Amino acid sequence: MNLGANMITDPVALDALAEQVRALDVFGLDTEFLRERTYYAQLCLLQLGLPGRELCVDTIAVPELAPLAASFASERVTKIIHAARQDLEVLWRASGPVRRVYDTQVAASLCGFPAQVGYAALVEQLCGVKLDKSATRTDWSRRPLSAKQLEYALDDVRHLLPLREMLDEKLSALGRSQWFAEEMAELDRVDSYEVAPEEAWKRLKGLAGLDPWRLSLAEALGAWRERRAMRSDVPRSWILADVPLREMVMRVPRTAAELAQLPEMPEGVARNSGTELLALIEQQQPPAILPPLPQRERPDEAQQALVRKLSQLAKRIAGDLELAPEILATRRDLEQIAAGATDAAPLAGWRRQIVGEQLLAGM
Q1: Distance between CA 350 and CA 147 in Å, rounded?
Q2: 319: enclosing H helix or E strand
Q3: Tens of pLDDT, residues 34-61
Q4: Do residues 30 and 87 lie in contact, with contact meaning Cβ atoms separated by under 8 Å?
Q5: What is the pTM of this model?
Q6: What is the CATH number of domain 3-188?
Q7: What are the structural domain ranges in the chain?
Q8: Which class is domain 197-283?
Q9: What are the tens digits of pLDDT across the range 345-357?
């Protein structure tokens, strides 16, 4: 195989590919990207699986993907992707929204495969092909790529079309095609994969039970960190790790000395950004007497017993359907239901009829 013929490296060739793609009603899609040292993922390679042909677009040589944007966004054209969410996030920034996705991982999970079944495992089990994964840890930003690396990348889309056909047959035979349609409709409803700085604090762990003022401070500090990371295009942890940020929320330092003494507070952050961080705290107008920190409460035994009961029920239903239990309800879902939530995932869509009503009846 002449792998060079499968690599798009100039705008003219990309335009020709885009014209070919516009005539299709389905194609496979995958990406290779890096984000270890940046805030925004760096798209290094775009792979397309067309009927009878696989191609790679060198997105370092040809970063402008506008010719493909209309096909990606088209509601008429099906895009087959395995474990789509990260690819959709990366492509959102590179070329815009990708609509009408067929996620083979989600389809497989509804057919009884493990919830996070990998592409290679699925190809081996359904297509009888064992893929060479020796190039998994490739630095996709380096050029030139070797023949082995290009073959690995092409393999990632080579089997997507037949996988879709086989999974569609299984979904239909199991009577679960509508379940899958609802799952994919959720992907289409995502308005943006951009993170709003004011929402970034919600990623932090260990804030449960805090008073409203401290939560407001967490929002302000989280937004500060997010904007800094975006502006510098570095991981947010390079700006400030979660532990010292959370300690700022808990202890509310008011002086440079107090800030520097926080656990794991980097000396450079305290020295270079300390004045700004302390001013940000003051802008939140700390109360004269800070509310006490929440005390760790003993687990509610009745609540735990209810969660165990619901978990056993969900596992039984999943077992009867030969599904991984987390497909129907995660531990977090069950905790929310036990606490009285009405908007947990098992209480909506197809899950409500399959498992949600029984969970509510078991309360």
Answers
A1: 45
A2: helix 301-321
A3: 999 999 999 999 999 999 999 999 999 9
A4: yes
A5: 0.92
A6: 3.30.420.10
A7: 3-188, 197-283, 301-361
A8: mainly alpha
A9: 999 999 999 999 9
